[in-house]
Amino acid sequence: PRNYKTDNLTDKIIRTADSFIGVPYRWGGESVEEGFDCSGFTMTVYRLNGLELPRSSRGQWNAGVSVNRNELKKGNLVFFRTTTSRKISHVGIYDGNGRFIHAPGKGKRVKRSSLNNRYYKNRYAGAKTYF
Description:
This protein is of the alpha+beta class. 30% of the residues lie in helices and 24% in strands. It has helices at 4-19, 38-47, 57-63, 118-123, and strands spanning 30-31, 35-36, 65-67, 77-80, 90-96, 99-102, 111-114, 124-129.
């Protein structure tokens, strides 16, 4: 059975994330005016939909409940290890069809990327749910 409350929330999360596509990346940023870093982006999108998340990607990773990759749902957060330390260092919002919305990094803007992109595929750490 479908959970309309959850479906509605995930649709709102994706719509909110979509509305920020094109906003510049800014380390430490958590608003449209100043730009977003990856975890500032996810935290802000969730907060605008009534959900509280920790500020850092590592904190968000630790706060969520693990989701298998083959059970990903819209609105889940997807996490990556993009540094040599192998710690969680990047996060985005899964939006279905193997894609996610994120603030990729310096000089870039909030955008959609594919989990199958070689860079992200090789650095994928897992996914979490918060609702």
